[in-house]
Write a structure and sequence with these properties.
single chain; 216 residues; 3 helices; 13% strand; rod-shaped; disordered N terminus
């Protein structure tokens, strides 16, 4: 029995020794940690982080550029619409001014046409009154005609129809129509000595030129 126990203990000792030897071999086989490798890994990881930051920054910049481009396109569209609105307003203002001028010109043309038809009536009034003798001037009919003529002349003047001055004035081809010439030493040359028919103006335009005699 004593021999068996000793045998068992010796086997146990051998197993422990073998285990210790195996552990020693594993420790020897296990590679030692390299501090330089660890530093390289740290550098690589930091470089990876910087690259990620750079990529994220570049993506942000790209996003900002896209937003800026969208904003610029929107601003350009707003400016384009604003310019178009201003042009339309200017064109409308020009059209309105042009329409007002055309309407005013058409009104003046129509008024001048009416005045031209009335002037012969005024001429007949004047001829009739000039033919009245001194004895007939106190006649009630003549006085009535004179009153009508004065009222008619006042109405024409109110709407802008006025006679053109002629006798004693310098001849103006824009206002007068010379149908005769006269030799008169008592008057200056180119002066109107006689009026055959009154001329009239409507506002600033001539409706009818005066028919006159001019001194040479």
């Amino acid at each position: 029995m004593a021999d068996e126990k000793e045998f068992d203990s010796s086997e146990e000792v051998e197993e422990v020794a073998e285990n210790d030897a195996g552990m020693a071999q594993e420790q020897q086989a296990k590679p030692e940690e390299d501090p330089e490798g660890a530093s390289e890994e740290a550098v690589n990881s930091s470089q990876d982080l910087e690259a990620e930051k750079k990529e994220s920054g570049e993506s942000k910049n790209v996003g900002k550029k896209k937003k800026k481009q969208k904003k610029d396109k929107r601003d350009e569209k707003i400016e384009e619409l604003n310019d178009r609105l201003l042009r339309n307003m200017a064109e409308f203002e020009n059209f309105r001014n042009r329409s007002e001028k055309e309407k005013s010109a058409m009104f003046e043309i129509g008024a001048k046409s009416v005045v031209e038809k009335i002037l012969p009536v005024v001429d007949n009034f004047e001829r009739g009154l000039d033919a009245v003798t001194e004895e007939e001037k106190e006649n009630a009919f003549v006085k009535g005609m004179e009153a009508v003529y004065k009222q008619f002349s006042a109405a024409l003047e109110e709407i802008g129809v006025v006679p053109i001055e002629a006798v004693g004035q310098q001849f103006d081809p824009n206002l007068h129509n010379a149908v005769m010439h006269d030799e008169d030493d008592t008057m200056d040359a180119n002066v109107i000595s006689e009026e055959f028919q009154k001329g009239y103006m409507y506002k600033e335009s001539v409706v009818r030129h005066s028919m006159v005699k001019v001194v040479n």
